[in-house]
Amino acid sequence: MNFSKEITHWYFQNKRDLPWRKTKDPYRIWLSEIMLQQTRVAQGLPYYQKFTEEFPTVYDLAKAEESHVLKLWQGLGYYSRARNLHFTAKDIVNNYNGEFPNTYKALLKLKGVGDYTASAIASICFDEIEPVVDGNVYRVLARYFDIDIPINSTEGIKTFKKLAFEVIDPKDPANFNQAIMEFGAVQCKPQSPNCTICPLASSCLGLKNKRVGILPVKLKKTKVKNRWFNYLVVVSTQEQTLLEERKGKGIWQGLYQFPLLETTKEVENIEKYQAEIEEIINIKDFSITQFNKKIKVHKLSHQHLHTTFWIVETANSLKNGISLQEIRKYPVPILIGNFIEEFNF
User: Fold this and answer.
1) In sequence order, what are the residues at sequence separation of 6 or more whose Cβ sits closer than 8 angstroms to the Cβ of residue 308?
2) pLDDT-based confidence at residue 281 (cuts at 50, 70, 90)
3) Could you tell me the Gene Ontology terms of the biological process aspect for this record (predicted)?
């Protein structure tokens, strides 16, 4: 059986109708690949459509304010992707005359572009023989060749990249790369793949050896850190509130949030934190009530945020206060966005 030909044939018969498959424009391929990192197509597609409508060219994205880019990205998560996207758009306009590099090695020099994204752009847009290796590809190769080397180990990364080079169709790398990714997403799915109708079933070693369900192998993740976030939602009689921009290199850099009191455990008596709250919001006269009686747990890749929203009412005028009517204009984490909709300012 010719692996690459079977995969590509399957692709032409079964591929989903997606907008980035109708172009070889590196800007749009780059945009789709960055958006779909750690994101399902169904979730990423509306964002791709919003971005291409708002920023039809790399010049439009480069000219945008970062806050506007982050606002459009809101809800997609992993916000460093959006910041890198904006940075790279400006880099391409300022240093590459608005033209994307046309080789894998040159693409790797762009911020936020790693092996996978560089391989995708180089092969799809410029027909370079450079295989993509993403989660879908790892799964297909691990099962078909019955390989149990952990895919997130140094050995695994090298092994699967080498294998991907061996199976790629050198005459049609663009369609082969898209085919094997689509095959993993639609046919060789993580859970309950339908092996009975798989065109590769007769030669799949993982199926033959009854190991499909345990492949690919992945090393255990880093231990999850628990944090307790107490958001102080100030509401003044002048219909104003307070928002602050998250600084530094931690989560949600560049996004806005309500003033935050972070504690080492769940807050059972908020009065104990009176002095800290006064300092954080720079107000002394206020009343405070708990909004959500049950803690909301927001799960990130390596952190669980145990979150409580506290409504802080005051008659004081707010220094740097913003109108409640303006609050939806700010880019915020989805955790804050959901609260804003629930509270309905």
Assistant:
1) 228, 229, 230, 231, 266, 267, 290, 291, 292, 295, 296
2) very high
3) base-excision repair; mismatch repair
Distance CA 92, CA 103 (A): 14
The position carrying tokens 């990192």 is 37
Which of 345, 300, 306 lies closest to 322, judged by CA? 345
Same domain, 172 and 256: no
CA distance 139 to 244: 42
**What's the total number of domains in the chain?**
2
CATH number for the domain spanning 22: value is: 1.10.340.30
Pairing of strands 287-290, 296-299: unpaired
pLDDT of residue 223: 85
C-beta of residue 329 within 8 angstroms of C-beta of residue 248: no
For residue 174, what pLDDT band results from cuts at 50, 70 and 90? very high
The answer as to whether 220 is a domain residue is no
d(CA 257, CA 239): 17
Q: Is 118 inside any structural domain?
A: yes
Domain endpoint, select from 214, 248, 282 = 214
- Per residue in 196-219, pLDDT (tens digit) is 999 999 999 999 999 999 999 999
By the 8 A CB rule, do 158 and 150 touch?
Answer: no
Active site residue 33: yes
Q: Which domain holds residue 265?
A: 225-343
Same domain, 28 and 149: yes
Quick: pLDDT tens for 230-243.
Answer: 999 999 999 999 99
Closest by CA position to 286, among listed 321, 313, 317: 313
pTM value? 0.81
Query: Looking at residue 331, which CATH number applies to its domain?
Result: 3.90.79.10
Residue 78 lies in a domain: yes
Mean pLDDT of all residues in 127-145: 96
Main-chain dihedrals φ then ψ at residue 288, nearest 5 degrees: -135, 130
Place of tokens 């791709």: 48
Catalytic residue among 6, 33, 99, 166: 33
